[in-house]
Amino acid sequence: MCRMAAYLGPEIQLEQFLLEPRFNMIEQARHPQETCYTTVNADGFGIGWYTNEGSPAVYLNPQPIWSDCNLRHLGHALSADLWLANVRSATDMLPTSVSNTQPFWDDELLFMHNGFIRDFETTLRPILHRYIDPEIQAEVRGNTDSEFLFALLRHVLHQNEDLSIDGGIAAMFELLGEYIGETPAMLNLIVCDGEAFYAARHAINDVCPSLYYTTDDDTFPNAQLIASERLTESEYWQALPEHSILILDPEQPPELFDL
Q1: Would you name the residues annotated as active-site residues?
Q2: Confidence of residue 23 (pLDDT cuts 50, 70, 90)
Q3: What does the pLDDT read at residue 177?
Q4: Residue 105: φ, ψ to 5°
Q5: What is the model's pLDDT at position 93?
Q6: What is the pLDDT of residues 122-147, one digit of tens each?
Q7: How far is it, in rounded angstroms, from Cα 30 to Cα 208?
Q8: Which of 19, 42, 92, 155 has the lowest tally of Cβ within 10 angstroms?
Q9: Phi/psi at 40 (5° precision)
Q10: CA 117 from centre of chain
Q11: CATH number for the 3-258 domain, one of 1.10.10.10, 3.60.20.10, 3.30.160.100, 2.60.120.10?
C-alpha cells in the first residue's frame, strides 16, 4: 500500500515537507508503520505542486525514493505553499512505471489514491471502460486502479459541473458501491484544485487505511497537513473518522463530512 502526504500553508522548501520531518516520506517508504498489506513502498514516488500560473506540476520517478540522487537538490531549490507526495507499493499485475506513478493530474486537479480494488482488471475496469467518457479515458496514461479512479472522478464532475469536488468524491464512491458488489476496495484519496485539499478515508468490503491530519503542528506553523502516517511526533495529529471526507482550505477551518 502507498503512503501519501500533503501540505497547505506558508511557502516552504520541498525538503521541509518531504525530507526533514521525523517520519518523512523516505522513512515511510522504507519503514511504514500502519500499512495493511505491505512492508515497504519501493515502487516509485511522486511529488506534486502548482506553478505560479496555477497549473499542476509533478516530478515522478518509478524507482525507490531513497535512490533518487536529485532529490536533495530539488528539496533545497523548490519552494511552494502547497505540496503533495506519494510513495508507491505496486499492486500485483499493475507494473512499476512512470505512467503508474502518482500524483495524477489534469489541467486543474492533482490526485492521489492509497489502497487497491481487488481484481481490478477483471472486475471494475471493464465497467469503467463502458461508463467513462471516451475523451477522459483517452487521457489515462497508465493502467492502475488509482488512475481509473481519477478518471471516474473527472467523469462525475464533468457530468455535473455544479457538483463540488467533495460532492463528486461522494458520488463516485456511491457508484463504486454499485459496481463492485462484494469486491474489497480500499479508497483513501487526496484531491487538490490548487486552493484546497479534499481527503477521503473510505473502504468498501474492507478496512479503511490510516489517514491523519493536523492544523497545529509546531514544525509547520500556520499550516494544514494530511498524511497516511503522522509526519512528526506532535500530539495534534488526528485520525480522520472512517468513511468521511475532510476539506482543508486556507481561508476556512477544517470541515468533516460523513459519507
Answers
A1: 2
A2: very high
A3: 95
A4: -155, 160
A5: 61
A6: 999 999 999 999 999 999 999 999 99
A7: 22
A8: 92
A9: -155, 150
A10: 15
A11: 3.60.20.10
